[in-house]
Design brief:
Largest sheet: 2 strands, antiparallel
Organism: Melanaphis sacchari
Shape: elongated
Strand content: under 5%
Keywords: Coiled coil
GO biological process, one term: mRNA splice site recognition
Helix content: over 70%
Number of helices: 11
Strand order of the largest sheet: 1-2
Order of helices and strands: HHHHHHHHEEHHH
Distance between the termini: 111 Å
Pfam families: LUC7
Number of strands: 2
Structural class: mainly alpha
GO cellular component, one term: U1 snRNP
Length: 302
């Protein structure tokens, strides 16, 4: 995106579609069904996961920063309940991801050598420590990039302690099974983003995973969904009542227009009958007058 396009997008986001008297390039308003409600609330998975291994392509609905600005201004005056739509959208997306995660776990059970309960527990201990190291290392690097050196060094000290615990757990796991089996890569599925993680993955690979855009994107989506679900039932009920009231108002308006139309029709028919009656009365009057004139002419003739 060029600097000009970036500046235009920033102005759209700040000022909406009314900037310089312009209208949306899509010729729609923010409340159009074709506009993505999740985008308006900054939580559309199509945007969050763009350019990752799980990029799901362009959203089928409209994304426009100017429409988002219009929505934010309108929301200050009137509640549109778009969080209900966004909750249902994210619920469907996360449910689909969780189904894929469970399917991946089942495939691993079918393809990997089955471990006894005791050995599986030891392998999980290694996995959990490795993941904790990856999380902590990614956080330490993030703090270092922000210039928080002391906090970063503190986390690096925690990582050294975790590495010692992991080394001990690996020895326990190694001693509980044959060497040939230990050398095989034992995989597990990440609960957050459904990526595969190996028991022999090094710290760098794990840090790249837990600090990567894909994993962090899924964390953002799941946290947003958790936030929205707190008040979902209450908000859903409030929107249902609001929609019901709006429906009653529309029905009343249609009923009023219908009654008004009936009154107008009755009035029109009444006026028509009145005109017809006056016309008949004038016709009878002219007929009687014509008859009297004829009789007068006949008398004068004789």
């Amino acid at each position: 995106m060029s600097a000009h396009d970036q500046m235009r997008a920033m102005l759209d986001q700040l000022m909406g579609t009314g900037r310089n008297g312009e209208t949306s390039r899509y010729q729609v308003q923010f409340n159009d069904p074709k506009v993505c409600k999740s985008f308006l609330l900054y939580c559309c998975p199509h945007d969050i996961l763009a350019s990752t291994r799980m990029d799901i392509g362009e959203c089928p609905k409209i994304h426009d920063n100017a429409l988002r600005a219009d929505f934010e201004k309108a929301q200050q005056k009137f509640d549109h309940y778009y969080d209900v739509d966004a909750t249902e959208h994210l619920q469907a997306f996360i449910s689909d991801c969780d189904r894929r995660t469970e399917a991946a776990r089942k495939r691993l059970l079918e393809t990997q050598e089955e471990l006894t309960a005791e050995v599986a527990e030891k392998a999980n201990a290694v996995h959990e420590l490795a993941e904790k190291i990856g999380h902590t290392l990614a956080k330490a690097e993030e703090l270092g990039a922000q210039g928080l050196v002391d906090e970063s060094l503190k986390l690096m000290g925690e990582i050294e302690d975790l590495r010692k615990k992991k080394s001990e757990a690996e020895d326990t796991y190694r001693n509980s099974m044959p060497v040939s089996s230990y050398q095989q890569q034992k995989l597990r599925v990440c609960d957050v983003c459904s990526a595969y993680l190996g028991i022999h993955d090094n710290d760098r690979r794990l840090a790249d995973h837990f600090g990567g855009k894909l994993h962090l994107g899924f964390i953002k989506i799941r946290e947003k969904l958790s936030e929205l679900e707190k008040n979902y039932e209450e908000r859903h009920e409030a929107r249902r009542k609001f929609d019901e009231q709006e429906r009653y108002k529309r029905d009343d308006k249609r009923s009023h227009r219908s009654r008004s139309g009936d009154r107008n029709e009755r009035h029109r028919r009444s006026r028509s009958r009145s005109r017809h009656s006056r016309h008949r009365s004038r016709s009878r009057s002219r007929s009687r007058t014509h008859k009297h004139d004829r009789r007068d002419r006949d008398r004068r003739r004789y």
